[in-house]
Amino acid sequence: MHPESSTAQGSAGHAITTVRPAPVAVPDHVGQVANRYAAQSAFADYRSRKADNTLRAQDADLATFAAYLGQVGVQVDPQALATDPAAWQGMTWGLVKGFVAWMLKQGYAVGTVNRKLSTVKVYARLAAQAGALDTQELALIRSVQGYGRQEAKRVDERREQSRLGAKKAEPVGLTAEQAQLLKTSHPDTPQGRRDALLMCLLLDHGLRVGEIAALEVTDFNLAEGVFTFYRPKVDMEQTHRLTPDALRAVRAWFESGDAPAMGPLLRGSRKGGALTEAGMSERAITARVRALGRKLLGIEGLSAHDCRHYWATRAAAQGTDAFALRDAGGWSSLAMPSRYVEAAAIANERVRL
């Protein structure tokens, strides 16, 4: 192509010629190569951006999908669904719709059904970007709907089994008095001081169990009364100011010499109460919270998640606004904290005019 030119009259009567460069045409084969490259890397690029916890959850969701497909006569490698667009060739909205019905029949909680359906939709979209799935079929797959809260209640009322495993349908509710007992009713022993610190971090700061397991000794600044920690679920680093109870528990843990010199903050327990060298796994934390709930309150099935629910509910009841609660709890939207906060008996009790 040749450049275009135009002539205009200048202020002094002189002709001014302006030359505009011709548009550059991208050869068709170059665009096709770029499209193929982007398609081939769609899955890898998406997964490279996600946290490890997210990928583990998605892999588990796709394994469930593969198990369902196997039962209806479609054999597919679960790992291929997460990495290979070709594994999605021939996928239809009918299969996805059947997956939802199958999960409900198997007894999966509605929230789990919604999450697994969402994962399938995400990877179907990636497969369509890679050219392995027809865009019209993708539109039909995306039309398969999960369940809202009221719909979930009606579904659960009409099926025999509404939940797999021992996970609770509703959290264990705690009063302020019970929370105080869990934070302070511990013997002055290494294990007792560890338990007091653990419960303060759960009940006063709303940390997730994985966030507590990952805490390091160097995350705490006792002089300023703060600690800094990482939230892998939302890829966020935060600093919290320790509450009075939590600060006392941290100081007792460090000043007694119980805390490791370096590395993980907490220490596990052996039978008899002796502590291990360093580190407390998520499973060990979960088991200890359950044991303390039974021992101190006579409550069966208390979990770290129940403590986070208490923290969010208590904070809201004390007048914490939704935005501050979202930020302090490490949520990415206002929708998530609202699921943890219990409705007030008087609907407008927290409204300030």
- CA radius of gyration: 28 Å
Might you state the CATH topology name of the largest domain? hpI Integrase, Chain A
**Would you list the SSEs in sequence order as H and E?**
EEHHHHHHHHHHHEEEHHHHH
Q: Tell me, what is the CATH class of the largest domain?
A: Mainly Alpha
Query: Spans of 5+ residues with little confidence (pLDDT < 50)?
Result: none
Feature tags:
three-stranded antiparallel beta sheet, two-stranded antiparallel sheet, 52% helix, hpI Integrase, Chain A, DNA polymerase, domain 1
Short description:
The protein has helices spanning 28-40, 42-48, 52-71, 78-83, 93-106, 110-129, 135-142, 149-157, 176-184, 190-205, 209-213, 244-255, 282-297, 304-317, 322-329, 335-340; strands at 4-9, 15-20, 220-221, 226-231, 236-241.
Description:
This protein is mainly α. It has two domains: 30-157, Tyrosine recombinase, N-terminal domain (DNA polymerase, domain 1); 176-340, Intergrase catalytic core (hpI Integrase, Chain A). It has 16 helices and five strands. The strands form two sheets. The chain has a three-stranded antiparallel β-sheet, with no helix packed on it. A hairpin with a 4-residue loop joins strand 3 (220-221) and strand 4. The chain is globular and about 65 Å long. The model has no long low-confidence stretch (mean pLDDT 86).
How are the elements arranged and paired?
Blueprint: E1 4-9, E2 15-20, H1 28-40, H2 42-48, H3 52-71, H4 78-83, H5 93-106, H6 110-129, H7 135-142, H8 149-157, H9 176-184, H10 190-205, H11 209-213, E3 220-221, E4 226-231, E5 236-241, H12 244-255, H13 282-297, H14 304-317, H15 322-329, H16 335-340
Antiparallel strand pairs: 1-2, 3-4, 4-5
Helix pairs in contact: 3-6, 5-6, 5-7, 6-7, 9-10, 10-12, 10-14
